[in-house]
Input
Amino acid sequence: MSRVFRAGALTVIVALLAACGNGGASPSASTESSTAASASSAPSASSAAAGCSPESLETKSPDTFTVGTDNPAFPPYFAEPEGDESVTEPWEFGDPTNGRGFESAVAYALAEQLGFSQEQVTWIPVPFNNSFAPGEKDFDVYLAQVSYTDERTQGADLSEGYFFGNQALVARAGSDLAGATTIAEVAEARLGAAGNTTSLAYIQERIQPTEEPRVYEDNTGALAALNADQVDGILVDVPTAFFIVNVEMDDGVVVGQLPSDPQEQEHFSMVLELDSPLTDCVDEALLTMGENGELDSLAAEWLSDFLDAPQITE
Output
């Protein structure tokens, strides 16, 4: 995967952050020009690409589009049941099958773009780290906030980006770290993150803290460590940070989002089996969804409440 679509969901994030008050980040001129240049150079997508109709696609099961994600499935990417609804087995917390939440909605929109009905979409639970590990996959596509890295493309195909954003720092309100505004201040703290994630890589490569970061199996473990005062702060993506402080912590605060280079901004990709016959069609579908504004609309609908974070500077 050499192409990266940088318009689409990035546009809505820039617009939303520019509108935020009291610490919301404003896009720099370089970010805006980079976005425009990338959009103009992106390949044109066609929803009628040859060989991309449901009867032509080599899916894992005939006439079925199998989507994998991690379990539990957390908001705002997957939504909890409403009213008299119950969670579909075996899902915990959020329910990918209800079509609500950003990644659930994106998956169903992608399936529709490829010509599958909602009834033809099947969800299966797959642990995060297993999704991009080498080997045969049980899913056609997988999405669970998997950030694109070159390393991950050694064992799997990673699609065009469907969401672009930054890392964010979560701490306990009233702590010394809660008032940090620069990376230098953050580097003095005890930091933690889930292992094998871009959050951990950011700590190691960009923050370079004075104390070795603590590594946990997943975000749940990292949050438990924060609550137990084993670390001063944890890194996650921006929407997850807001979910943690609004739902899972009584005294949490989003300290801020960490800076990223405009040309290297982190983005989520869908995972497919290495050299999957579906990859080109999925890429073309995502490009179309970016060009026609569908990714923007879905990000605005499901993530706009989770993007108002101050900026931590270099």
About this structure: The beta strands are 65-69, 121-125, 141-142, 156-164, 167-172, 191-194, 214-216, 233-237, 252-257, 267-273. Residues 1-48 have pLDDT under 50 and may be disordered.
